[in-house]
Amino acid sequence: MASIVNRNGNFYVVFSYTDERGKKKQKWESCQSEADANRRKKEIKFKNGIDQLTLPKCRTITELLEEYVAIYGKNKWSLSVYTSSKSLIKNYITPFIGEMKISEVSARVLERYYGSERVTMVLAATIQTKSWDGRFSPQNKDWAFTI
After folding, report:
1. What's the number of domains the chain is made of?
2. pLDDT for 70-114, tens place per residue?
3. Are residues 6 and 45 in the same domain?
4. How far apart are CA 82 and CA 72, in angstroms?
5. Which of 15, 55, 126, 138 is most buried (CB neighbours < 10 A)?
6. Are 41 and 6 part of one and the same domain?
């Protein structure tokens, strides 16, 4: 069974599934709009009905990016954005960290790849655009707005 949760204007589809080890888990998938969330909920209900709900099993950065582009990019990006994004991924991400396992990615790895100044700017921008998010401490929010 799937349900839709609205948190601070963001929509999430919440559902349970059984992983490859037979362990029951809960998954929260974020959606761009309530309409997208309703579509995903219907898809989950349909696939559960025919017992074919398959979750992505991305293990490397390349697999994750390919899936992201296939799901999000093809439906949301213009042709030029799609083409340039695929080229950027192919030329600048895949050769350096593409074969890295997702579980091995850390802030330290990204800092080595992008440099500490770039990581700091991206982190600050993320906190600034999500200042409503309760996961960030007041000290981190204050720091982000000084950058």
Report:
1. 3
2. 888 887 889 899 999 999 999 988 988 899 998 888 878 888 878
3. yes
4. 10
5. 15
6. yes
Placement of tokens 């439906």 in the chain: 75
DSSP state of 18: E
Rg, Å, the chain Cα set: 18
Q: What's the domain range around 25? A: 2-49
Strands 2-7 and 24-31: unpaired
Q: Which two tokens stand for residue 76?
A: 């949301």
Which pTM value belongs to this model?
Answer: 0.48
CA distance 21 to 30: 25
Q: Write down how long the chain is.
A: 147
Query: Are residues 6 and 38 part of one domain?
Result: yes
What was the pLDDT predicted at 51? 53
> Do 92 and 121 share a domain, yes or no?
no
Is residue 68 a contact partner of residue 26, using CB atoms and an 8 Å limit?
Answer: no
122 pLDDT band (50/70/90 cuts)? confident
What the block records as the tokens of 124 is 């600050």
Contact of 1 with 16, CB cutoff 8 Å: yes
